[in-house]
């Protein structure tokens, strides 16, 4: 089967394009660049402790049946598969190969499609502006019950059972009509341009955390841990950012997360750069302590697939805790819910095994009828945590999806 990629004129807004007869199916967008896919050529689900290896095998099988016609060298060109993995091994993970992918980077834009016909025509997407009526409901736990679970987590930390654990919660929202997914993507992209806006089989969100990027043997990971809600006042937010940068509780939480990523990448990389101090990443709703970890693959790993790295990095301390196994057990005991693909790796890879994966945060799962969304938010709990403060932090982390839905 032939798959073609050709260069096209640059596009002002990738999320504002459409292909006749095909629904939007996947995205990986940041600012003016990224990838947007339409239709579904094929897809599969994988699960189990070997799900990353199973996904690689499935992708290699698809590639073996393709005749690739691509004169461009950019990593997002040619056949691209979009993947979203469950947080736990027993949760279903999904891989989607779209019918059409439109991509763009700083240098050029392109379109990839199947078959012998000319490239499909790109049209402008014109969303409707009909207002949704939304009904917000508690998730698996009420706010007070969730705070009680945070107390239990703090007690476990005080007893020395764990050092850090991430405890998540969910919210349910019902809609009076079908949710317009592409308009939802546009809202997230407009409000959160410094995040990676993703869509994969109904899981949609705007994550600020890049788990791993692999291209030309260069590896990058952006680690986030330590959060403070913005006030809306520029002067106050500068003071809040300074307090976050000095917060012993947040610096401790951040150090656990950075160490877990650096340790996982160490065996793959040489010339690693792990900054001693984090910077403060400013988003529309919150500020995070952030560290960019970089490295170059060792010669023996020059042909590594990005999923090899993902399997070693997940779950990081940023979304699980430390030590990992005990933190995972605490999550199972305390959250009282199934995370599904929330906090799992989400992104894409190409025919050479290069690509980008983030962590599925600031997101929600839309049901098949498109009239209900389950939203997720999690907080890192360490010795200095306070349940009431963590509840406020979780509410701030719900804000990207809440606002995007409420402005449809």
* Largest sheet features: 13 strands, mixed
User: What is the tally of helical segments?
Assistant: 8
- CATH names the topology as Anthranilate synthase
Report, as a whole number of angstroms, the end-to-end distance.
Answer: 39 Å
Given helix and strand content, the structural type is alpha+beta
The proportion of residues in beta strands is: 35-45%
pLDDT averaged over residues: 95
Specify the CATH architecture: 4-Layer Sandwich
- Give the class-level CATH name: Alpha Beta
Number of beta-strand segments: 25
In short:
By secondary structure, the protein is of the alpha+beta class.
Please explain how this structure is put together.
This protein is α+β, with helices and mostly antiparallel strands and 408 residues long. The protein contains eight helices and 25 strands. The chain has helices spanning 51-64, 143-158, 181-191, 234-246, 248-266, 306-313, 324-334, 387-406, and strands at residues 2-8, 17-19, 24-30, 33-38, 42-46, 67-70, 80-84, 93-97, 100-104, 109-114, 122-124, 134-138, 164-175, 196-200, 203-207, 210-215, 218-229, 269-273, 279-282, 286-297, 321-322, 345-350, 355-359, 363-366, 372-381. β3 (24-30) and β4 form a beta hairpin. The longest helix is centred in the C-terminal third of the chain and has 20 residues, at 387-406.
Task: Give the secondary structure arrangement, pairings included.
Layout: E1 2-8, E2 17-19, E3 24-30, E4 33-38, E5 42-46, H1 51-64, E6 67-70, E7 80-84, E8 93-97, E9 100-104, E10 109-114, E11 122-124, E12 134-138, H2 143-158, E13 164-175, H3 181-191, E14 196-200, E15 203-207, E16 210-215, E17 218-229, H4 234-246, H5 248-266, E18 269-273, E19 279-282, E20 286-297, H6 306-313, E21 321-322, H7 324-334, E22 345-350, E23 355-359, E24 363-366, E25 372-381, H8 387-406
Parallel strand pairs: 1-6
Antiparallel strand pairs: 1-10, 2-11, 3-4, 3-14, 4-9, 5-8, 7-8, 7-22, 9-10, 12-13, 13-21, 13-25, 14-15, 15-24, 16-17, 16-23, 17-20, 18-20, 19-20, 22-23, 24-25
Helix pairs in contact: 1-6, 2-8, 3-8
